[in-house]
Amino acid sequence: MGTGKVPVVRVDQLGDYVGEEVVIQGWLYNKRSSGKIRFLEVRDGTGIVQAVLIKNAVAPEVFSAYDSLTQESSVIVQGQVRADPRAPGGYELGVSGIRIVQVAEDYPITPKEHGIEFLMDHRHLWLRSRRQHAILRIRSEVVKAARDWLDDHGFILIDAPILTPTAVEGTTTLFETQYFDEKAYLTQSGQLYMEAAAMAHGRVYCFGPTFRAEKSKTRRHLTEFWMLEPEMAYADLEEDMRVQEELVSYIVQRVLEKRRRELEVLEREISRLEKISPPFPRLSYDDAVELVNGVIRARQAAGEEAAEGAPGREEREPVAELLEWGDDLGAPHETIISNQYDKPVFVHRYPVQAKAFYMKPDPERPEVVLCADLLAPEGYGEIIGGGQRIDDYDLLRQRLMEHGLPTEAYEWYLDLRRYGSVPHAGFGLGIERTVAWICGLPHVREAVPFPRLLNRLRP
Ligand code: 4AD
Ligand code: MG
Structure pTM? Predict the structure, then answer.
């Protein structure tokens, strides 16, 4: 079986083999029997096909193989492909042969409900379940779409190092490690290196894992997450936002085109994603504070204590507190803002004190910086952070000192302001938060194959 002329095919190719004999290599997802007919649901990674065993049509040992097959047993099935609109996927297999590769032990994940910690402890097996399978295929499409868009728009992929001597996004969230005789840190962002690369190539991006030793337990925080970081020479904040809205819209439309079946498995509301197209609304930080405080005051007046978060989310956010000018926006504030729009919304020009050392002050209002965060709709919060960088040598040196950062370690970064400095801008798109939004997930932990969280390093 599986040799000779019978082709080994994938479940997602069955449409090309209707009427023909094929071999499928996979695992038993489910089985059921009804009189003289037995049904095997076989998954092979690309899909699930129903294989039908009819007592009088096959050898007795083939028919009885059904009995020894347990959930997740590895199995090779041969049979004729039939188009059947009632079958899940549209095709089924009329079985002529079965080879059991391994009979699986009692599988821990059964169709009954399991708690999230149990499932996370069994993440190495949970990946096989239908929803998790759909999420990671969408993640793969998100990454491919993002890279295709950038590659087609003049960006060059430049990989950033993971072991670094310095901080990018503040010193409180650094993962420290020993690097021979000195200390090193796992990178928080490839940005500083991309700024160097942009001065060599014009438009560049990196895509890789980044690390934050944040003691946050929210549904948006991972300690290890993947970030896509484009950087552009001769670009300002306006250009930065324009690139972001084009890129994000393209990603969403590609997922709709190529991964619609997976979105359906997740029961995602497709019509909400169909609305995602440029331009995205732009809201200044000042207006954002007013909007948020207006909503909070209205709630207080109505005597509501409602916490943020859409219904069904297991982890509620804390109740939003009134903002004072200068405060950074917290997750509950972002949720209030993003719930007002059907599309992602830019919040731009935050106060200097709320943002990182490298952000360029607005020449017309030096108390704010030329930055923007992109907040996804439906309460998903910030998926992108970015903006224009300081291009003046003296100001950058001054900011490093104000932030208590050792200027010696940043000499190479300062060099970029000494040798042909130009206005430049970029951003970081968090892959897991983007996938969580597109998939409609309650928590980012399902948007990454093996999540690293405050309380989870395993499996
Ligand atoms: O806003 P952040 O911290 O920006 C930077 O790191 C810049 N240096 C990027 C740049 O301009 N090149 O992070 C950017 C994005 C966030 O909007 C969010 O999507 C994601 O990275 N992110 C996280 N995702 C999951 N868990 C965390 N702890 C995250 N921290 C940031
Ligand atoms: Mg940010």
Answer: 0.96
